[in-house]
Amino acid sequence: MNPQTFLTNIQPLKNKLFRFAYRMLSNVEEAEDVVQEVFIKLWKNKDYLHEINNLDAWCMTATRNLSIDKLRSKRQRVQPLHPGLDREDNAPNPYHSAANKDLVEQVRKFMAQLPQKQQQIMHLRDIEQYTYQEIAEALDISLEQVKVYLFRARKAVREQLLKQDVEAFTDRSR
After folding, report:
1. What is the CATH number of the domain that holds 117?
2. If we measure between CA atoms, which residue out of 61, 62, 76 comes closest to residue 141?
3. Residue in 114, 127, 122, 27 with CA at minimum distance from that of residue 70
4. Domain region containing 3
């Protein structure tokens, strides 16, 4: 594989891998390092890439494993994604835009309280738009486990949002 073909096939994965690494590490520099390490691994094995059935899943798995290695070496917990990375510029008016941003921030806060595996799966499915099968391959778990973890994660976030709404309504009616 020549450098141009490599860039054409691999470069589009960069942002997706960065977001995933950043979600786990909560550190821009470390996430960039992880993505760079994945790209180095790919380049070193460029002659064998044709043997990989799902390059996307392979890259996500490598990113996940390298991120976990960094976390273990630093013994730090996963923090929520920085609020400035997602932009909601297409909201119909400022009120809806502010409300949407608040909701996104609340979901991120509640996601950060989930177990790590649930956070990863919810991020890959609901933010990165991966299929269940791609998630199963990337995280090396069964399809059923993906569905169970995603169901539990969404349920926990939904319950927290509803609880928060009830508390806010109760406070206003006093």
Report:
1. 1.10.10.10
2. 61
3. 27
4. 1-79
List the end-to-end C-alpha distance of the chain, in Å, as a whole number. 68
Distances (CA, A) of 166 to 21, 147, 150: 35, 28, 24
pLDDT digits (tens, 9 = 90+) for 135-167: 998 899 999 999 999 999 999 988 988 888 777
∠ CA 129-131-132 to the nearest 5 degrees? Answer: 125
Place of tokens 């923090």: 79
The DSSP result for 59-95, as a single string, is: HHHHHHHHHHHHHHHHT----PPPGGGS--TT-SSHH
Query: Could you tell me if 109 and 71 are in contact, meaning their C-beta atoms sit under 8 angstroms apart?
Result: no
Contact 91, 63 (CB under 8 A): no
**pTM for the full model?**
0.53
How far is CA 37 from its chain centroid?
A: 18
